[in-house]
Amino acid sequence: MRQRYSKWLAIISGILVLFVSVVFALIQSPEVLESPGLLSLTVAQPIPHSIEEHEDCN
Predict the structure, then answer these.
(1) How many angstroms from the chain centroid is the CA of residue 7?
(2) 2 by DSSP, 3-state: which?
(3) Which sign, positive or negative, has the C-alpha torsion 16, 19, 24, 27?
(4) Could you give the 3-state DSSP secondary structure of residue 56?
(5) What confidence score (pLDDT) does residue 21 get?
(6) What is 4-53 written as a DSSP string?
(7) Which pLDDT band, with edges at 50, 70 and 90, does 6 fall under?
(8) This prediction's pTM
(9) Under 8 Å CB-to-CB from 51, ≥6 apart: which residues?
(10) What's the DSSP call for residue 55?
(11) Residue 49 has pLDDT above 90, yes or no
């Protein structure tokens, strides 16, 4: 009985931690829900000038 209880307690605790993590992640980044797919990639635009002597440019 005790092993069954501790197994279910571990499973439920893990699910609860996962749920809370997802909720906080969505609070921090709500734009994830607006993306058309599950994964969205950001592609860098080409630099409109030469990069010589501008290696530390932001």
Answers:
(1) 28
(2) helix
(3) negative
(4) coil
(5) 94
(6) HHHHHHHHHHHHHHHHHHHHHHHHH-GGGGGSSSSS--PPPPPPSS--TT
(7) very high
(8) 0.49
(9) 57
(10) T
(11) no
